[in-house]
Amino acid sequence: MSTPALRGPYWVTVRQYRRTLWLTGALVLAALAVIGGLRIWDLQTPDVYLEDGYWRPADDNSGFRMLRFGVEQLSLGMVLLPLLAGAFVAGPLVAREFESGTYKLSLTQSVSPAAWLRAKLLTATAVALATTLALMGVFRIGWGRASGTWDLNWSDRGPYEATGVVLFAYVLAAVAVGVLVGQLIRRTLVAMTATGLVMGVVLLVLGELRWSFLAVKTVTGPRDATLWTPDNGLMMDMGLITSSGARFDQSVCWDEVNRSPRLDGMGDGGMRIFENCLTRHGVTGQYVDYHPQSHFWPTQLIETGILLALAALAGYAAFRLLRARHP
């Protein structure tokens, strides 16, 4: 029972960065205290009942407004978590060892280069995933109350990452990329910056592409009706269609309005010209392209698969590079 759970390079890694571990735990507890406290504050003011059977927060519920703000900021911070994890791994955990030469001491303690790097990689991965899981739990405390409000829908940046599994994959990819970049550059600050840039590009690119993984669904309706996306969907595109079902470019009619002489605005006959143009081109309806909420998990799994492949490639390259430099 007295045998320590961690031995060899694992114990050294944890001991060496114990202050960082304590700071990470303190930040998680601080987030818990803030979100939990705001949720308790929110509960002090009863909701207002609406005639359609729904309830909404009262106008004087300052606790709800602060909770919504806190959840929004926490979700944005969680999006940046992979950048922080990758930068720390690349810089203080790996690059600084090579920059200062302290890795040589570890390799003289009957520890192979692969075992030394594996200890750092697995320790960083365990801590990063545990931190991510804890923060997601804290986020859930406020998410159940604030979800569906402005910028806090299932498809928004922040809640999308914080309520699925893709954030774990981002963290894994960041750790693997950080280990590779730290070995390639071997300069603490430069390695941290490079890893942050790489993961920042990955976040931006996948954020732009994720809603292209699955085909959109389309709903149509009459030209003059108000058309909504069903299933709490994410609207991707909207426009007009002709009687044949073909999509119509509205700019054709707007150009006709703009070319009309002695026209001061839409209220001065402009709308009539626009409507006549639509009728002349046979426009009878409108469409909305959208992703239903049921696309959330398939999109998450596709994006997660891409990130896990990136993590595997970066980790493999890191160990091949280590083996080449330190056979």
Radius of gyration: 27 Å
Number of strands: 6
Oligomer: single chain
- Give the overall shape, derived from the CA principal axes: elongated
Compute the separation of the termini in Å: 37 Å
Mean pLDDT: 89
- Count of alpha/pi helices: 12
Major sheet summary line: 4 strands, antiparallel
The helix-strand sequence is HHEEHHHHHHHEEEHHEH
Structural notes for this entry:
The chain has helices at about 10-15, 20-45, 60-80, 80-100, 105, 115-145, 160, 165-185, 190-210, 250-260, 265-280, 295-325, and strands at about 50, 55, 215-220, 235-240, 245-250, 285-290. With about 325 residues, it is α+β, with helices and mostly antiparallel strands. The protein folds into two domains: about 10-210 and about 295-325, no CATH class; about 215-290, no CATH class. The strands form two sheets. The chain has a four-stranded antiparallel beta sheet. It is elongated.
Topology, please?
Layout: H1 8-16, H2 18-43, E1 48-49, E2 55-56, H3 62-79, H4 81-100, H5 103-107, H6 113-146, H7 159-162, H8 166-185, H9 188-209, E3 217-222, E4 234-242, E5 247-248, H10 251-259, H11 266-280, E6 283-291, H12 296-325
Antiparallel strand pairs: 1-2, 3-6, 4-5, 4-6
Features:
327 residues, 12 helices, 6 strands, alpha+beta
What is shown here, in short?
The chain has 327 residues and is α+β, with helices and mostly antiparallel strands. The chain has helices at 8-16, 18-43, 62-79, 81-100, 103-107, 113-146, 159-162, 166-185, 188-209, 251-259, 266-280, 296-325, and strands at residues 48-49, 55-56, 217-222, 234-242, 247-248, 283-291.
